[in-house]
Amino acid sequence: MTAVPTLPPPRRERGGEATRQRILAAAEQEFAAKGFDGARLASIARGAKAPQALIHHYFGDKDGLHRAVFERVLASIATESFRILETKAPPRRRAKGARFGRPELEALVHAFVGLLVDFYTQNAHVLRILGHELGRSGSLADELVKTRLGPQLDDIVARLDAMKLAGEVRADVDGRHLCISTVAMACFPTMDEAFLGALWGLDPRSPEFVAARKREIAATVLARIAP
Q1: Which residues, at least 6 apart from 223, have a Cβ–Cβ distance to it below 8 Å?
Q2: Is 182 helix (H, G, I), strand (E, B) or coil?
């Protein structure tokens, strides 16, 4: 009788990825609370309910884990930004006579405002890490923001300039200032939750607040840019 070969056990990729994601989530908490210098891998391992050796297995060292935390979040918003630009913004090369009207402008603004508000609402820990990191010499955050988000913001500014020339947004719109203002409106509630809670008892993470915030910001931006 021919012996049946023994097959190796199946690889547990799904379980391994779940562990990796738990480590990243715990690292976000630790880096946000203590900054890079104060964060401890042992604390992250406890928070992730994983052996500390797996941190080294997946990320190499503390620097590698720190980078992975940033890259996971910034890559997601960069990818979604490009998707919105490619599907909702005016194409770089348009057919003669093609016009980007008010309905298309509203759809574009609502898409970007929704992306920003959701990003800041869901990634408060990463924002705190960015605050810690930007104060360090040789900032990793500075590098990643420029490489991950810089191209998207430059693209938005360039498209706004083209829309100004086409008369599709107001001629006095400054693309960079518009980006700064929109980001500021989106991030403030998350950055100052305690202030809003003390002032008006607001919960910036409640679905009702998030939906209302999106409407308010979009209306403000459209009032500023619509011709």
Answers
A1: none
A2: helix
Q: Residues 42-76: pLDDT tens digits?
A: 999 999 999 999 999 999 999 999 889 888 888 88
Give CA angle at 188 (112, 154), nearest 5°. Answer: 40
Residues 6+ apart with CB under 8 A from 192: none
Domains of the chain with CATH codes: 13-60 (1.10.10.60), 66-225 (1.10.357.10)
Predicted TM-score of the model (pTM): 0.80
Q: Of 139, 131, 132, 138, give the one whose Cα is nearest residue 38.
A: 132
Helices (H), 7-61: 13-38, 41-48, 52-59
Q: What angle do CA 185, 191, 193 make, to 5 degrees?
A: 105
Neighbour tally for 222: CB within 10 Å: 17
Between CA 71 and CA 65 the distance in angstroms is 10
In degrees and rounded to multiples of 5, residue 56 shows phi and psi of -70, -35
**Alpha-carbon torsion, ordered 140, 124, 68, 156, to 10 deg:** -70
The alpha carbon of residue 121 and the mean position of all alpha carbons in its chain are separated, in whole angstroms, by 10
Q: What is the pLDDT of residue 11?
A: 46
Dihedral sign from CA coordinates of 85, 87, 89, 91: positive
Report, in angstroms and rounded to the nearest whole number, the Rg of the chain calculated over CA atoms.
22
CB atoms under 10 Å from CB of 57, counted, come to 14
Structure tokens at 171: 């001629």
Rounded to whole angstroms, how far apart are CA atoms 106 and 214?
A: 12
